[in-house]
Design brief:
There is one protein chain. This protein is of the alpha/beta class. The protein has two domains: about 140 residues, HAD superfamily/HAD-like (Rossmann fold, 3-Layer(aba) Sandwich); about 80 residues, Putative phosphatase, domain 2 (DNA polymerase, domain 1), CATH 1.10.150. The chain is about 45% helix and about 10% strand. It is built from ten helices and six strands; from the N terminus they run E-H-H-H-H-H-E-H-E-H-E-H-E-H-E-H. It has a six-stranded parallel β-sheet, with helices on both faces. It is elongated, with a radius of gyration of 19 Å. The termini are far apart.
């Protein structure tokens, strides 16, 4: 039924968002003594979103946004040695070992026996390449695409590049905004596997979901069973749910 099964990387194959939430808590503790108003976390989030057009997604952009937020929230009173600590936070994030999610080590080698597998992720090129290499999973994926963003346009470009028929393509990911809705809009199959923490920017409203249909699984270990059921009964009805998420920290 499927020629290609593609996976998001961060928070689908390995843990990622928890690294950001832990670092954001360290950042809060660092800047609070210098703040002129109470910390809400919204200031950093707004800076991150505003900076996406300049720095894109990933740790480097997050670090630059922390520095900018620290300067703005303290009226420029944050000492240089504290800025140095923020930079060190980023380096520690980049050095964090890749920790695969439960069941990934079993599911990916099993699926590659029958399907062409692909990674479609977004973020900083160097950081994503490094994590893919560290994960020990690279050998199982025929194609790896690291995008600056995930939209219907970028997915269509991937389909065109590899001659993929959307109706014979499955995308598996944790983000409704990035992994599910754009793929469904192109006529492909999508499987949502929620991560326990979701960055606010990736949360979508019920209105945005509309009548679009997708599958939702509790964890990736259930994916082979879903694929088998679809192969036997391709007309099976999908489940549609709104993603539950919290602010990135």
């Amino acid at each position: 039924m499927f020629d290609v099964i593609a996976f998001d990387a961060d928070d689908t194959l390995w843990h990622n968002e928890t690294i950001f939430t832990v670092t954001q808590d360290k950042f809060r503790q660092l800047v609070e003594p210098y703040l002129r108003s109470s910390w809400t976390g919204q200031e950093l989030f707004e800076t991150e979103v505003r900076n996406l057009r300049y720095f894109g997604y990933g740790i480097k952009g997050f670090v630059l946004s922390m520095i900018e937020t620290a300067i703005e929230m303290t009226g420029g009173q944050i000492p240089s040695h504290e800025i140095r600590k923020i930079i060190d936070f980023g380096k520690a994030m980049l050095d964090t070992p890749v920790q695969l999610l439960d069941h990934v080590e079993r599911v990916i080698p099993a699926l590659v026996r029958s399907y062409t597998l692909m990674i479609i992720t977004k973020g900083d090129l160097f950081d994503q390449e490094t994590k893919i290499a560290k994960s020990g999973l690279a050998e199982y994926f025929t194609h790896i695409e690291i995008l600056s963003d995930k939209t219907t346009k970028t997915y269509q470009a991937v389909f065109n590049k590899y001659g993929i028929d959307p109706q014979r393509f499955m995308m598996v990911g944790n983000s409704l905004r990035s992994d599910i809705l754009p793929v469904i809009a192109l006529g492909a199959c999508a499987v949502h596997i929620p991560y326990h923490v979701t960055w606010a920017h990736e949360i979508v409203s019920h209105h945005e979901i509309g009548d679009l249909q997708y599958f939702e699984l509790e964890h990736i270990g259930l994916l082979p069973g879903l694929i088998e059921s679809l192969t036997r009964a391709p007309g099976v009805k999908t489940r549609r749910r709104r993603a539950k998420g919290v602010h990135h920290g």
